[in-house]
Amino acid sequence: MSSGNFFASLKKLSGKHYIIISLLTVHTSWIVYHMNLVSQELINPWKLGGYGMYTKPANRASLRLYDIRSETEKLSKKTYTSKGFRSANYRYSFRCRPISEASLLIFLKDNPHLENVDLRFTIKEREFRRNPIRTKLINHSVTEIRWQQKDRFTYSGKVCGNEYTGIVDYKS
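Below the sequence we write its predicted structure tokens.
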């Protein structure tokens, strides 16, 4: 097929064909981009279209909450709600995104009985191990909040090897 025939055939395509070709191009580009983000461990492979989900088992990131004063005592999920916290952190889709100040404030507004309690937020994920084949729960992100005064706390954490800190003036 000569180039003249090729361009002549393109002129015969209708608007519907251009839309279909454009959508297929965008869709294919997203697959490549998604796999690239997953390979850099920037996003959860099971989220945002999930084309990277075939690279490893579902992470099923989950929040564990500890009272720092008792170090090993995990708070029961019945004693707090984390729905707003999960939503504010985009359901943990962006794996290397630090827990935001806004999400901590949302958590405290949803759980006023935990105000002025030093807490450790641990987000655990399943990690795929090859020899022997299994999955293991690992701490992916750890953030601590410590109350300096009744209306002020500091937070610090580590995610993907990066540390972050902040100070929050809190008004209940």
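The helical segments are 3-11, 15-39, 83-88, 101-110.
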